[in-house]
Amino acid sequence: MNKRILAIVLIVMLIDIPVSFVPANSIKNRISYKIGWPVVIENDIVLGPPTLADLDNNGTVEIILGSSGDFAPDSGKIYVLEHNGILMENFPIKLGYLAGGIPSVGDINNDGFLEIIDDAVINGTAHSKIHALSYLGDSITGWPIQTNGWYSRSSLSDINGDRYLDILIGGAEAGTNNFYLYAYNHNGDNLSGNWPSLVSCPEGMQAIGDINNDSNLEIAVGTSFYGFNGGIYVFDHNGNIMPGWPIETGKRFPAPITLADLNNDGNLEIIATDQDGFLYVYYHNGTKAFDTQTRACLYKEVVPVDLDDDGDLELIVPCETAPGSSEYELIAFHLNGEIVDGWPVTFEGTPTGGGSANGESSVIVGDIDNDCQSEILISSRVSDGFLINAWNCNSSIVDNFPIHITTDAVDNGGLALGDLDGDGSVELVFIAYEQSLSQGIYRTEIHVFDLNAAYHQNTMAWPQFHHDAQHTGLYVKANSNSPPNAPSITGPASGKAGQQCSYTFNSTDPNSDDVYYYVDWGDTTSGWVGPFASGVDATVNHTWTQTGVYAIIAKAKDIYDDESNWSELFTVSILQRALLIGLIHNVNILGDYIEFVPILVLAIWLSPFNINNYSYGLMMISKNYSGFVGKLFIIGMFDAAVVTNRSTSIYDSS
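Predicted structure:
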């Protein structure tokens, strides 16, 4: 066992978490595991797919999982795994008897860090709590909230336009046949308007987007027929049913809804499949674009992708090859309902998961071989484990696929693509689980593969379940979204050590999206701060504790994580009051400052008190001073800074 694996095992033992390694020979092709993977969670099962996000804003991506096995001893937990396979500090967190299974992630309180949203059933009751956890594992202010019933899965978006993410979740009122779509603000309060909204049983996961191009968000959800006719409902941002909706077919719509502008008219189409495998596509006003019998798999979302590079989107649907068949295929449809040339493609195994609307083994899409085109991936169960299948847009199989994983696990919980360790390469995440009530076996496997391809955010068309970590279900065309412009920086060019300085950042987004700012202050970084309106000044404060000359640089990103170029450098001189006396040379006047090289200078710093001798290097002072500065000698009281130095400490107050 090498030293790295030994270190990870020791850490796991110390924190007493049941995580272990799958045998290294469990993969049968040239694509390799990422170092530290795979790992196993014992005594718990994760039915749903992974959520990928950088929770703590450190430049690496975490894998967030919610466990929801009915009988597993440790069910109802949130797990967060670092890029190297080690559990994040303070996790897992026990939420309740059953967790929702697919945590959504977003910065709901605008603190610059991401929060985890999931619900959990309270043991022995028909009630749930909805939780909002920080990356440290503690509940944020106002959370959890107690509910009078059970809930489904959450999505996050700024529904009411206050620049805070809101939480959308479907649920049932205990002891009644009433079903609602709930909308909570970041404090855990119901949004104003007609929230919660009465709806047929919201079985399918909701999708959120500006359906009719009116600059307000709408919410689409698929429903079952309990107490109502099953169908598709669309609500406006105030919780009112939109004109032309609902579409009631009397069928269940258990699969997640998808939103995408398929025909480039600026409006979003609503895409869904029902219990009988029909594919439906509706325009924003409720008129039908087309429907067709596809034998679509019951819980699998439909994923849009531009297969033929014509600017129009096609729809990828996982299907049975025939009613009741044990063979499966992916079919690609044009907007007019015609099948794309070269499709469908068949694959070995079964893409079904745990038999719930958790999104297991759903399709993901992204460029995994740097050909500037999307590849389509889905996992399937075979007799000795699993296959991860991948096709090019022309329906040919991607090189080195399928990946064949041999394991005793019997069900799969889905895929995700991301750059976990921030090295600029694509990693592929796969979840599998095994549950045997008779043998008392409950285990979840997390596999991470290094695909040896460069990662680019704008080529990841549908990289995880329901498109993104907020689970909006909204497809955004890479070429329809432009990143913000590089931000401008204004503020003081000088300051004093230990005193707060304020700086203004301004970036304009071509799509008028809200923007976030990331600031490198020269001594620390800010993390992502925001959101702020496009083109509106954003003030961010910083305090330098040491004297010197610092270069501030910043970049902006929009709500789709498309980042700007870095700004121009903004130089700041941080000074401190000091008594200086000694020999100097190479004196230069630069604007409001004087620079010089100390030959031998005694510096008595006043706050905090410290005494140093400086020789060589570079020092600077403000031109506003009390004393004398000559070509070879300096004496007096100055606002000074050491730019580069070779010093000897005579007295240190610490």
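Summary: The first helix runs from residue 3 to 15.
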